[in-house]
Amino acid sequence: YYLKAWWSPQPTLHLLPHWNWAGQEGKPLDVWAYTNCDEVELLLNNKSLGKQVVKPNSHVAWQVRYAPGTLEARGYKNGQRTLTEVVKTTGPAATLRLAPHKNALNADGEDIALVTVTVADARGLTVPTADADLTFAVQGPAKIIGVGNGDPTSLAKEKFVENIQLVAVKDLQETAVVSLAAGVAALAQPASSPATWQEAFAHRDYQHLAPAYRHRGTFELPASLAGTEITFFYKSIGQAQTIYLNGHELAKDLKENAEGNIFKLAPALLRPGQNTLEIVATPLPKQHEWDVVNTNPGTIQVLTPAAAWQRKTFNGLAQVIIQTTAETGDITLTASAKSLKPATLKIKATKAAPRLAIP
After folding, report:
1. CATH number of the domain residue 285 falls in
2. Is 241 found in the same domain as 294?
3. Is the residue at 191 inside a domain?
4. pLDDT tens digits, residue range 157-196?
5. 84 and 108 fall within a common domain
6. Are strands 80-88 and 317-324 parallel, antiparallel or unpaired?
7. 188 plus 243 within the same structural domain
8. Exposure pattern of 94-116 as b/e (b: 16+ CB <10 Å)?
9. Rounded Cα distance, 148 and 116, in Å
10. Phi-psi map region of 264: left, alpha, beta (phi>0 left; psi -120 to 50 alpha)
């Protein structure tokens, strides 16, 4: 407001700070006004506290003993009152309000609405001391693409995206078996002596391969799996293979697939911490000594969906940005906070031609 007052021709009068100082009754507070008026008069509860001349590139200030009510600044230009700024003591926070910068959007996949969120008291006054944790949700042909509150010291997230963690199968070992069927049958038996196991693929004689190999490895999952989606991107390590996860059959007689196989893993098959993967496979041969065969059974993906969009208010305000999709229809944005009446905003997305683009 200082720069606006002195660097622009627009008539400006801004009064600060807010006037919610419960517990400070009778104590002096600094009150400032930024303005490009010639003079400013300050009033508290309709009682004048004096008029001051505004020096160029400066501001005017008073020391005011706090009393709840109405603080009013009157700006004068050439002796005539031209501007008025009022700051009122508010009641406790009671409700949320949503106000978009425009009331209709183009359904072109690009148009956005900047929505101001206000914490208000029962009279509809903005509560400048409100420090509310807001949660946002949108329905219809739109998505939330950002949140903010104007707090220059805030380290809170401004975007909420899903988290993807890639987990490798480690300590993969193998032991030779007489056949695929025998290897599968052995999965039901107690684990054989560690002496019969060795590092997978490390010591294979590709001129004298066993009929089949039983492989065993582990992977680690987070301590909490709540809300996660876990996928196994399997890469064939045999011409035919049967896969077990934590003692449960995941795939049987799976043929070699150069593109790999994808398994959505049910929560019942998994456990926090260490999980055991076992694969019985007929080996991939080498046609030439220099051939390279796959020795990596793949990767486990742990996807944690994005958390709900959230933001804390600053000076009783916050902002959320929504963007249309290419579909028409009604967009509904909701904002909620503990102990406050939620707010709902409806905006219509209407048909619009997308911008020209190079294919």
Report:
1. 2.60.120.260
2. yes
3. yes
4. 888 999 999 999 999 999 999 998 888 888 766 555 666 8
5. no
6. unpaired
7. yes
8. bbbebebeeeebbbbeebbbebe
9. 10
10. beta
Cα–Cα distance for residue pair 46/207, rounded to 1 Å: 100
Contact 269, 241 (CB under 8 A): no
In a domain, residue 358? The reply is no
Both tokens assigned to 321: 């940005």
Q: How far apart are CA 352 and CA 330, in angstroms?
A: 15
Q: Hey, what's the torsion of the CAs at 15, 18, 20, 23, to 10 degrees?
A: -90
The neighbour count for residue 187, using CB atoms within 10 Å, is 16
Specify the amino acid at residue 61.
A
**279 and 219 within one domain:** yes
End-to-end CA distance of the chain: 45
- The predicted-structure confidence for 311-351, as pLDDT tens digits, reads as follows 999 999 999 999 999 899 999 999 999 999 999 999 999 99
Q: Closest Cα to residue 172, out of 242, 219, 208, 210?
A: 219
DSSP codes of every residue in 266-331: PGGG--SEEEEEEEEEEEPP-SSTT-------EEEEEEEPPPPEEEE-BTTEEEEEEEE-SS-EEE
Give the domain extent around 250. Answer: 165-304
Q: What is the pTM of this model?
A: 0.74
Q: Report residue 71: phi and psi, to 5°.
A: -105, 125
Would 359 be classed as within a structural domain?
A: no
CA torsion angle 248 250 255 258 (round to 10): -130
Structure tokens at 233: 């991107």
